[in-house]
Amino acid sequence: MRPSFLKKKPVQNEEMSLQITSMADIFIIILVFLLKSYSTGAINLTPAKGMLIPEANAAGAAVEALKLEVSETAIQIEGQPIANLEQFRFKANDLQGNGTSKALTAALEKERKRQLLIAKSNSEVKVDPKIIVVADKRAPYSTVKAVLASAAVNSYTDFKLAVIKGD
């Protein structure tokens, strides 16, 4: 009797065939994964009529966040008018000593409370510190500074300034 390791293996005369179906399945899965994870980096923002958005080369990817718009006549949050402006400037009685706007601070505080309530009732939702500021390029620095200060007081500390991508 021969030991088992000395037994001859049967010779295979058939050619080995490639399983195309399995490879096609793998490539489809990879393709679906890549398409799902692909992002163009642009956000659809529709500024108010007559607004001139500044041009710049954006370095980071676009993100979704609370949209705050600064036009010549008003401040809007998600399209809802919050504070009236006169030629891009806050009214004197709206500005506080710390450089924030009373009306804007109150509206952002209300929005923050709403986000906190949603996050409290749904553990999958996180409170987001991001805010996108869509400001007309004619808006003075003092107005943009008051907007950012009002946002920072309400824990919106991750600012993104919307721009039109230049060449």
Q: What do these coordinates show?
A:
Helix content is 31%, strand content 19%. It has a domain at 55-165. With 167 residues, the protein is α/β, with parallel strands linked by helices. It contains three helices and eight strands; from the N terminus they run H-E-E-E-E-E-H-E-H-E-E. The model has no long low-confidence stretch (mean pLDDT 80). Helix 2 (102-121) packs parallel to helix 3 (141-153). The chain is elongated. A six-stranded mixed β-sheet has the order 5-4-3-2-6-7. Strands 1-8 form a two-stranded parallel sheet.
Break the fold down into its secondary structure elements and pairings.
Blueprint: H1 20-37, E1 55-56, E2 66-70, E3 74-77, E4 80-86, E5 89-90, H2 102-121, E6 130-135, H3 141-153, E7 158-161, E8 164-165
Helix pairs in contact: 2-3
Shape: elongated
Number of helices: 3
Which parts are unreliable, with pLDDT below 50 for 5 consecutive residues or more? none
- The termini sit apart by 83 Å
Mean pLDDT: 80
How much strand content do the residues show?
15-25%
Main sheet strand line-up = 5-4-3-2-6-7
Helix content: 25-40%
H/E series, N to C? HEEEEEHEHEE
Radius of gyration: 29 Å
Main sheet attributes: strand count, strand direction, barrel closure: 6 strands, mixed
Report the structural category: alpha/beta
* Total beta strand runs: 8
Key features?
167 residues, alpha/beta, 3 helices, 31% helix, 19% strand
Short recap of the structure:
Helices cover 31% and strands 19% of the residues. The protein is of the alpha/beta class and 167 residues long.
